[in-house]
Amino acid sequence: MAMTSTNGSSSVAPGPGNQLQRKFYTEDVCTLKADPSMVGIVERTFYEVESHEPLEDSLIVSHVPVPERELMDFLKSGVPAKGCVFVTWSEPTQGSSLVHEDDIELLDRSLEIGCLVKRHPNDTASGAVISTSIRYTLQPAAFRLIDHETGEYGALQFTEKPLGQLGPGDRVEPALLRDVPAEELIAGCDEFYEGSYIIYRQKIGLIQQVDRSVVLMLPSQAVVTPLNPYGLDFPLALDSKPIVSLPNRHEPHNSDSIGLSRPDLSVQADSLYPGQFVRTTLKNLRRGHWTSGAFSENEAAEAHVLATPPLDIHVEWICANIFSVGTPSFGPTSEVLRAGRLQGQAVVYDSGKLPAGHSYEQAIRPGSNHSVGDRVRFRDPAGAVVKYPGFDWIPKDQTFDYDLNIFKIVSVKTEVTVQWQDLSITKESSLSLHKFLGLENEVWPGCLVSLRDEIQTLPNPNKHSTEPLAFTFDPNRNSTVLRPKKIGVVQKVNSRERIASVRWYRDPNVELLHNGHVLRPSSLLGELSDEITDVSMYELTTHPGLVKARGEMVLLVPEKIHHSILPPKSSFPSSTAAGPCLLSYLFPLSFTQANIYLDHIKHVLVEAEWFKRSINIDQTPFPPRHSVRRDDFSLHDPIDWIGHIISLDLDGTITVRLGALQSCRDVQVPLEKILMVLDEDATDDIGPSLLDEESFELFNASHRNFIQTIEYEGGTRLGGDSDDDLWLTEDDDIVSDSDSMPDLIEIDMSGLAEPPQVSDSTSDSGHYDDMPVTLSARLAASCPPSFTILDMPPPQNHHFLRRKSSDANTQRLRRIGKEYQILESSLPQGIFARTWESRIDLLRVVIIGPQGTPYEHAPFVIDFYFDDHFPSAPPASYFHSWTNSMGRINPNMYEDGKICLSILGTWPPKNPDENWNPTKSTVLQILVSIMGLVLVRDPFYNEAGFEAFASEGDSRVESTQYTEKAFVMTRGFIKHALQNPVPGFEDVLAWHYLPGPVENDSQFTRPQLLKKAISEATAMICHCNASCDNELGSERGAASPFVAQVASSGRAGCQNKECKDEKIRIDKGDLRLGTWVDSEKFQSFFWRHWGCVTPKIIANLIEISEETSDGSRDYTLLDGYDDLSSEHQSKVREALEQGHVADSEWRGDQELNRPGKTGFRKRATKTKGPADNDDADEKKADKAKSAKSKAENPKAKKSEIEKSKVGNQKTEKSNAKKRAHSNKNDDEPVDDANSPSAKKPRKESTGKKTASNPPDSSAKAKKARTGLAEVEPTEDKPRRDRKKAKSDTVENTKEKTKRSRK
Fold it and tell me: Is the distance from CB of 1273 to CB of 783 less than 8 angstroms?
């Protein structure tokens, strides 16, 4: 059953087979069901890895019972158990709690402008919040009772009462202000609060900390400023609720730390607001400053907070207004300023302010960071008194000249306006929406995109120039310039079909630096045309230098500049290093460095034609050098150079709200006018752009036991909970213990102290002698060896060729030799390695993508370098990404060549044993890890922290879309490798991708992966096109939900339950039926034997094959029917005429193979007779004998394998006959001719093919056409036998190998 949302996206209704919707996200507002007065904010969930940090010392209270084991595990790891969340309550004295999701209720979901949302997690369509409507319920910090007879106000009272002063029935509560819009409120008790942007003297910075004094009012109405403002505590009133943790407890958490609350317990007051009740010491009061009253020894040391005036403001300066006159570009990055110096001079940026002249409903409201428990005040107190009758404005003369009109948020209600990908706009309650993380290169209306095939990659001639900050970047990061020739603005998106409507620019002149992160300042988008086309989202790409998002703070070119800042002649007319980008890309960056960078951009912009046309020039004379007015000349200039984005318009312009202006207003600016994006990540301690990968070692190598379970072609771990067992193969590995490594063959590396001279003009497609190489089928008469030492120079495009040749250390050379011997004897199928006699410290590997993954058939090239630190540290690695800066193909494989694996030292493992171990880890383990743990079936879940989604089946839509994108992108890898053959692997590529001269000899049959890739892609395109025609109302040519075809390989497993339980595959050549499963979780064919097609499915096929006017049926409406042989077409027609498949083909009980029946295949009772025991003993003995022979004499391994092969084949045939005979006796008691076991014996779970002897030649021919006869291996026999003989070694490795991905 499906339900359709108003924007046209379908979702799966909750049911027994569907995943449960997530109940809570971080920042959700919730209440405790057992005590609705307790309201809090969700801080941590099981799913959101960003919240999984070690716990800080804090007050943790068990307000509701939680199993002690889950609580103890949480205290140690900081990760809530599945089904639990960590909540921080609005009152500091209530602390935080680990609670079960069933014990709390969702009140509100915090959403701001720019947030990505879905109505249901399984929807394909998503939307962006373009406006918000947030309303609060406020509780005043203090109030006065009014005498209704006289109309006079009584004495001042605080809302928060002292402990034990009044019972619940005697407490007097003030009136609440309800339904207050967020735009009427300002955060904090004064203008300075942490986390806000501040503009002072034409500089912008971020307030990191505010040091405050505290003013207390005692019960006697005396007012005092205590000597130590940090010596105040909050008394706890938790009744008998268990306290799990108190602040400043540094000992390990254990069961003994749980105790009952006591009246004398208190916690230090970290954040103080007016109206809070606190305790201190008499000494702290005695030595304080008394504004009113006097100290008394008889008075309790407890009071209410009257005010928290700011003293010092700690600011981290970001940059200055580079277009301002007289603003210094040099200065400290961190500064502590007195609050009195800033008051009246500095401006705190106000993102909640609305522009004048707009009605409340018309204005775009970006939202608010306020939530329950926060303190706020009104922007216009006088207007609020009129609007809200319950607002009792307390004059300052009654509070010792302090403003006590402060309110606490006690509840919040959020409604949002969402623009969906199809351009529809709806208003939604935040409770009805789910947060969406978004996908790489996912687009929404208003996004700037470029066409993948229309991007030119040009060398950057100035990559080594000494431009600003060039010294902080690796030159390779800016070695090329991207020039997208086709740029457009997304108008709308059909997310289900992955199609975007794009309006294109006429003639954009745009260049991108630093792999697309930086926009060259001389770029110009130009004029938008009327051309709008529908484009596959896989043909589009986005670049960080072009992408902007709602809610981001941006630096702008001012509307008016002074003539004195214009340089007489530009020194940098064509900058290729500095340009508009995300500030986080440059971090860490000092205030001075940021100004130098921006000033460099300014020198380029002032020469641009658009700048000269659109910017006003102020011709006012500049004061002379020694004038007192010189330094303050620009201080009164409008702050129109800083704003936040509120809209991405469909005409390509960007609407920015200038929240620092006294009279806020919105402006529409082109992309070229944005100088910098002050993104949130800019506050991180370090940015990726400044890491020197060669000299910076992120994680030290340590001893480890590399224990993982690897599956090579199926893309998932063996022995896991996945149902992907049908994809398992029997590839090999070896024991990684260095003690078992074979002896070293001597390698001479003398004379290699210096690397060969290499030209700077190398490219990723370079070849030997710089000559193009054309692949030819003659390059490989048989499958090339997995490992080879080449006697030619290494290719110029080897990433580490310029590194010096490692020192001739004997121990290290012996280890490299051992590594190569391991690779020579034990590389799994699909991995090929090459090294060079002249540079034995360099290695290049080509991995053919594993079957059953989006990477299948595609080649992946990885370079390795064994430096002087090897084997103490793992070899350096570099992945050749051929995506042309269009995104990653895998979360673990970056475009800059980085591969995230703990064994490579590029990702911190949860278990230190997963690091590289100098004595036990091998290069083979690295390659097997990449093939089995990185190039997997569902790469989306390789992202850090997404394992939780994989275990729950969550984010399946995003996973499917990521897999589709990876599949499409890696098809380009095939094209690239064939057009630019990898030096040293020409024979490998020719063998795997090109047809060979010998086609009939099974021993030399080539994989022909190019043909397979084209065939599979064409089939997908045809089915997609037919499906689209069906949605458009086409009566003919629509795609059927079923497709009949002959199995092209023996890898697919039958999805019929009985076959699936036995892990039976569909043999190559068998007729099979694919059922198209098109859910919001995934889209795929589920295959089953033709003999497993039930009468119910046949009835569906009958409906699809419409009856023509002459009474016959149009079987061509069935997908794949025209491609079948006449014999298979006859089977399909016969089944549709009878209403069931032929009894001779049926694999279940005959009486259930009739129209109206559901049908199923009867399970065979497996019995093990004496003959089977003999065969098992014989195989076990042969295996032990073979293993012993290999251990004693490795050189005789091959001959022993050849001998064992013959015996194994005989045993397999014998067992097949016995199983067929047993199945016949158990399943089909009478009819021998119609016995399914006679027609097609059941496969063993190992997936090896067997066949019974045919009764005559005609039957044998029929079996050959349907794939029932035994099929010879397509690869060369000696290699197959060699792998088979090492199966015991494979099992060892599978037990020793442990996953170490990001």
Answer: no
CA–CA separation, 22 and 33 (whole Å): 18
Largest separation between any pair of C-alpha atoms in the chain: 116
Please report which confidence band the pLDDT of residue 405 belongs to, taking 50, 70 and 90 as the band edges. very high
Q: Are 1181 and 1195 in contact (CB under 8 A)?
A: no
* Contacts of residue 56, Cβ cutoff 8 Å, sequence gap at least 6: none
Provide the token pair at 1261.
Answer: 């021919």
State yes or no: pLDDT of 736 exceeds 50: no
Residues 6+ apart with CB under 8 A from 1188: none
Assign 453 to helix, strand or coil: helix
What do you get for the CA distance between the two ends of the chain, in Å?
A: 37
d(CA 113, CA 118): 14
Phi, psi for residue 186 in degrees, rounded to 5: -125, 140
Check 900, 1054, 1059, 1092 and give the catalytic one. 900
Mean pLDDT, rounded, of the chain: 76
**Contact between residue 585 and residue 689 where contact means Cβ atoms under 8 Å apart:** yes
Angle between helix axes 1197-1227 and 1277-1285 (nearest 10 degrees) is 80
Q: Which of 742, 871, 740, 874 is nearest to 809 (CA)?
A: 871
State how far the Cα of 1252 lies from the Cα of 699, in Å rounded to an integer.
57
DSSP, collapsed to helix, strand or coil, labels residue 56 as: coil
Which pLDDT score, from 0 to 100, does residue 1116 have? Answer: 76
Structure token digits, residue 369: 């960071």
Q: What is the pLDDT of residue 735?
A: 34
Report yes or no: 890 and 934 within 8 Å, Cβ to Cβ.
yes
pLDDT at site 1246: 37
Q: Rounded to 5 degrees, what are φ and ψ at 1190?
A: -65, -40
Cα Rg of the chain, angstroms: 36
**Residue whose C-alpha is closest to residue 100's, from 74, 121, 120:** 74
Give pLDDT tens digits for 1088-1119.
Answer: 899 999 988 888 888 777 777 677 787 877 87
Quick: pLDDT tens for 1222-1252.
Answer: 443 343 333 333 333 333 333 333 333 333 3
For 1046, 1274, 1277, the CA distances from 1002, given in Å and listed in that order, are: 20, 5, 10
Look up 1059 and say whether it is catalytic.
no
Beta bridge partners of 334: 316
pLDDT of amino acid 154: 85
With contact defined as beta carbons under 8 Å apart, do 787 and 832 qualify?
yes
Q: Using an 8 Å Cβ cutoff, are 1022 and 1030 in contact?
A: no
**Among 62-76, 689-703, 704-718, which range has the highest average pLDDT?**
62-76
Cα–Cα dist 795/762, whole Å: 10
Tokens in use for 858?
Answer: 């595609």
Nearest 10 degrees: Cα torsion 705, 708, 713, 714:
-170
Q: Would you call 169 exposed, middle or buried from its count of C-beta atoms within 10 A (0-12, 13-18, 19+)?
A: exposed
Residue 1011 phi, psi (nearest 5)? -65, -45
CA distances from 1104 to 289, 316, 648 (A): 90, 68, 45
Is the pLDDT score of 1286 beyond 50?
no
C-alpha span between 980 and 900 (Å, rounded): 26
Report the distance separating Cα 846 and Cα 831, nearest Å.
Answer: 6
Q: How far apart are CA 1063 and CA 1061, in angstroms?
A: 5
> Which H/E stretch holds residue 450?
strand 448-451
Q: Which two tokens stand for residue 764?
A: 């990723």
Q: Alpha-carbon distance 881 to 885, whole Å?
A: 9
Instruction: Give per-residue pLDDT as tens, 531-563.
Output: 999 998 888 989 999 999 999 999 999 999 888
User: How many residues are there in the chain?
Assistant: 1302
For residue 708, the 8-state DSSP code is B
Mean pLDDT of 745-769: 39
For 877, the token pair is 């690695």
Looking at this protein, which amino acid is placed at residue 845?
V
Q: How far apart are CA 712 and CA 732, in angstroms?
A: 9
